[in-house]
Design a protein that fits this description.
By secondary structure, the protein is of the alpha+beta class. The longest helix is centred in the first third of the chain and has 23 residues. It contains 19 helices and 30 strands. The protein starts with a strand and ends in a 6-residue tail after the last strand.
């Protein structure tokens, strides 16, 4: 499947507001004006070459090219404080102009590690979408010469496929999709490069066989004493693992699958069994760290996982719709759950159960110090510059094209709605499609199809795997009820095919009818903790916290005078960049066990709605959904003895109350979307009986920031 070109994707509603927040926050205009790792990068003509090949700059560009394009196409660019499109265009132009005319080298020398240059090529491919023919051609030529340079680096023995060869092959495949017909002479070189990167890289298909041998065993729990200096531990690195999950799709684009290797399904089964967390992440506070909810997950893992699942679905299609469920679980929980709602701060590591987010917090892995602080550059720069790809890439992959790519010899035959987001798209070959929805906060989406006057339109809509009661209201197309509205049930985990006759606009109203559900079995060992979900949203108990400004401007940033008047006017806002800590309010209660009756565990869970924030989708002060739950304080669930800043693993469930002091009377607690919290509990022990007649519930608030 193919994406709709970025210049034909219009984001609106809550998603448009989220993109505006991002552009006006730390990852949009602030970084190229006040963050030296970007505005002084050698990739963009500055004096700094940070790390190998200056990877921070191309990470940043990889997210901000689609962000700027979406804002421009959506008519939202005038709501951004500074001209992000101009910044991005200037950076892209410099990369093209600075390319070595003899060797084809793009950016600082990437010979020892292709990743920075490959990431830059990702950004250039996105920049070509909607560009003038001349600029698109120049970008294609530059990438082609850059691949020639990487070919020479590889075959001179200076570099190889490493851990991230699936991402390298992703870029090769995307390049061939767009420019392959224009560069037939390069095809043999590209195929040779793809084969060599795969052969010299980690054999993910063997690693996930879980045979305990190649060349390190898959870890059935948290990796002990990991180190970046160890080649073996590179297999366990969270970002490598998430990018490596493209291995089956990347291989399938070039060769037939090897039946002796593990599949993506095998890999996901292992990661689910030994490292999954309820917000959609795999535990990896740098390295794979198991299922304990107090262990962390790096932000880079979240955005790389989102894109891996979306890109893999586009390549494999078919029965792989569950990959899109995974992408949404990460996007609507893991991503907002590790940033502040205004997108001015982020964490390096998030926790499912987080009592504090502060310098003294130790997730239990190799990361220490500021890893859970909310800031500009907590712990290490990679998440600062990688964060920008999250929301824009989700938006640009919301509606796909089936059959062929627009502008190619084979035109598209249908729209495929991968994510029911507030998005409008149009193409010359199919017509247009608009989606009006508040999903995931709302349950209903109204799709309006605008077919061409002389051609019917097919729209396929993904029905999420959890949507067992979904329905659609459409006009009957034949029989005695022709033209009348009728409600039709939809099968979850499938694509609903909507056939729209030519000529006139037609609407369909999809109601996903999400139900509150309980997932028991989270956590490590015999924990069997419970997570509460509705649709793709995970719900959490916000913990009363005090917010402290640790430093301003944030570590890694500046508030210096900018070079031009427009930037000077923004300088005061730049100092909004600060590092924040959240500390548990003394004597606040957090250690609740949910009361989940054995016969009907959702019977005591009640949903309520509230007016959402008009401008901040994941605003903790105005969550649009709340779930009231019955719970009892369980005194035997305490902080970790060796790590008092974090909760211990939840006690094995179902828990019992061995004494009157062990459990409080039943109280009502309020849960809110995980993405609207900073300090929280989202994996709970549970009691499957009230153990006697319950007292009248005592209300416990949703938590406030002191």
């Amino acid at each position: 499947m193919w994406r709709v070109s970025l210049d034909r994707v219009v984001a609106h509603g809550w998603l448009g507001r989220q993109l505006i927040l991002q552009a006006n926050g730390m990852s949009g205009w602030y970084q190229p004006l006040f963050y030296p790792l970007i505005n002084e990068s050698a990739w963009f003509g500055g004096p700094k070459v940070q790390d190998v090949g200056g990877q921070w700059a191309t990470y940043w560009l990889n997210g901000n090219v689609p962000l700027a394009s979406l804002l421009r196409a959506s008519g939202l660019a005038d709501q951004v404080r500074y001209d992000l499109s101009a910044i991005v265009d200037r950076y892209v132009a410099f990369i093209l102009e600075a390319q070595d005319p003899e060797t084809g080298q793009l950016g600082p020398d990437p010979c020892t590690w292709p990743f920075p240059a490959v990431s830059g090529m990702r950004a250039l491919l996105l920049a070509a979408e909607g560009s003038s023919p001349a600029r698109a051609s120049a970008i294609g030529l530059a990438i082609g010469r850059g691949l020639g340079y990487l070919y020479n680096c590889t075959f001179s023995g200076k570099s190889g496929g490493g851990y991230r060869w699936p991402s390298y092959l992703e870029v090769l495949a995307d390049y061939l999709d767009v420019y392959g017909e224009q560069v037939p002479a390069q095809l043999d070189m590209i195929l040779h490069l793809a084969a060599t990167w795969r052969q010299t890289g980690v054999q993910w298909g063997q690693y996930y066989l879980d045979d305990g041998a190649y060349p390190v065993p898959f870890p059935h729990g948290a990796v002990l004493n990991p180190s970046h200096s160890s080649h073996a531990d590179g297999y366990y690195h969270g970002v490598n693992a998430n990018e490596g999950l493209k291995f089956e799709a990347a291989t399938a684009r070039f060769w037939r699958p090897d039946p002796a290797e593990a599949t993506l399904d095998d890999a996901l089964r292992l990661l689910d069994d030994y490292h999954a967390h309820p917000q959609g992440t795999f535990g990896a506070d740098e390295f794979l760290s198991g299922r304990a909810p107090q262990r962390g997950t790096e932000l880079c893992d979240v955005v790389e996982g989102m894109y891996t699942f979306d890109w893999t679905y586009r390549q494999l299609g078919g029965e792989r719709l569950s990959l899109l469920d995974r992408a949404e679980r990460l996007a609507f929980n893991g991503l907002p759950g590790t940033t502040t709602a205004d997108l001015w701060q982020h964490q390096y590591d998030q926790q499912t159960n987080a009592l504090n987010a502060a310098p003294e917090v130790n997730c239990g892995g190799s990361n220490r110090g500021s890893a859970t602080v909310y800031g500009l550059q907590p712990h290490y720069p990679c998440c600062t510059v990688n964060l920008p790809q999250g929301w824009p890439k989700l938006a640009m992959g919301a509606v796909l094209l089936e059959g062929g790519r627009e502008g190619s010899a084979t035109p598209p035959s249908a729209f495929v709605v991968a994510h029911l987001l507030p998005i409008n798209v149009s193409t010359p070959s199919l017509g247009a499609l608009t989606i009006e929805t508040d999903y995931p906060f709302g349950d209903v989406a109204v799709l309006t199809a605008y077919p061409l006057v002389d051609k019917p339109l097919i729209v396929r809509v993904r029905v999420p795997g959890w949507a067992t009661g979904a329905t659609v209201v459409v006009r009957a197309s034949g029989g005695a009820r022709a033209g009348a509205l009728e409600e039709v049930p939809l099968l979850n985990g499938t694509l609903w095919a909507w056939h729209v006759p030519q000529g006139a606009a037609v609407s369909a109203t999809i109601d996903l009818h999400p139900q509150i559900r309980v997932e028991a079995g989270w956590g490590d060992g015999e924990t069997r903790a419970a997570a509460i979900l509705r649709g793709p949203l995970l719900f959490a108990l916000p913990i009363p916290s005090t917010r402290t400004v640790l430093r301003s401007p944030a570590a890694g940033g500046t508030c210096e005078e900018a070079e031009d008047e427009a930037a000077d006017e923004a300088a005061d806002e730049a100092c909004k960049s600060s590092d924040l800590a959240f500390h548990l309010v003394p004597n606040a209660t957090w250690n609740y066990a949910l009361v989940l009756p054995a016969g009907d565990p959702t019977s005591l869970l009640q949903l309520s709605r509230a007016a959402p924030s008009p401008s901040v989708p994941f605003d903790p002060a105005a969550p649009p959904l709340r779930i009231s739950a019955s719970a009892r304080r369980f005194s035997q669930w305490t902080v970790a003895p060796s790590n008092p800043t974090s909760a211990a693993s939840p006690p094995p469930s179902p828990v019992r109350c061995p004494s009157p002091d062990a459990c409080s009377e039943i109280v009502a607690i309020t849960l809110v979307p995980f993405g609207s919290t900073q300090a929280r509990v989202a994996a709970f022990p549970w009691i499957d009986t009230a153990e006697g007649p319950p007292a009248a519930p005592t209300s416990v608030g949703a938590g406030t920031l002191a």
